[in-house]
Amino acid sequence: MPFVGSASRGGSPDRVAKAIQSVIRVQQLQGAAGNWQDFLRRLAVETERAGVLVLRQGYVGTNTRRSYDPREFSGFALLDAAAPVVFVNAKDPVARQAFTIGHELAHIWLGQEGVDGPFETEDEEDLEEVERYADQVAASLLMPEEDFLKTWQGHDDAYKAAQGAARRFKVSAWAALRRALDLNLVSPAGYREALEAVKKATQEARGREVRADFWATLAVHNSPTFTRVLCEAAREGEVDFKEAASLLSVRLSTFMVFFERGKGAGVPD
To answer: pLDDT tens digits for 168-203?
Structure first.
């Protein structure tokens, strides 16, 4: 993949964002998506088509009791010239996961692996320089300055403006609020006040999250592209079923049910 390590951290975050946009049509996907979940799905699909594997997992293997804590990390990137990987913590709110993908794509373009910290850190000074830079790239990619200014224009209430921008760009209200602060559209005091309202709304939304169907998300956990190719290899006898199950981090019996249900052929594109 020629884009792996193709960008320089010494340049403008906007320039890196435009380089990513030239390969993954993020803004077009936002316009076509009906909601946050639809945008996340479209973004993951488009990212895989570009050659980056996307794994979205909320727990270790199939052990639902060993959940990943979003307070510890939101995602990470693994660099490989042939198969770069973006891992997303699916325990994060859906609105946050799209930003994580943007952040990790920045790492891939920069050629520097990294772990994205907890859900929208309040103190940017706690972040390492490369993590702050990746956040800036993701913000520019998902919320281009010109479009963001137009969306924010005319709003006096920072909280309501952040909610509106979040709907427009299919990101979290927290990310939209931070973008507004960086663009001097809201004062530090206004940011802190609106942030408290956003945090309260975020906690309430977490309580309303719906559990996804296991079979519908198994391919998403391990990258739809990887899962589809692995199932095709198992069907052709190139990989035995036991090894395929191991590579998907499931029991053999679970893989057999998944395979027989036809999911191996119908993994989301």
So the answer is: 999 999 999 999 999 999 999 999 999 999 888 877
Domain limits of the chain? 1-142, 214-260
Report the alpha-carbon distance of residue 2 to residue 169 in Å, rounded. Answer: 28
CA trace torsion 147, 150, 152, 156 (10° rounding): 170
Question: Tens of pLDDT along 109-151?
Answer: 999 887 766 545 555 554 588 899 999 999 999 999 999 999 9
Q: Tokens 């076509």 — which residue? A: 32
Single pTM value for the model: 0.87
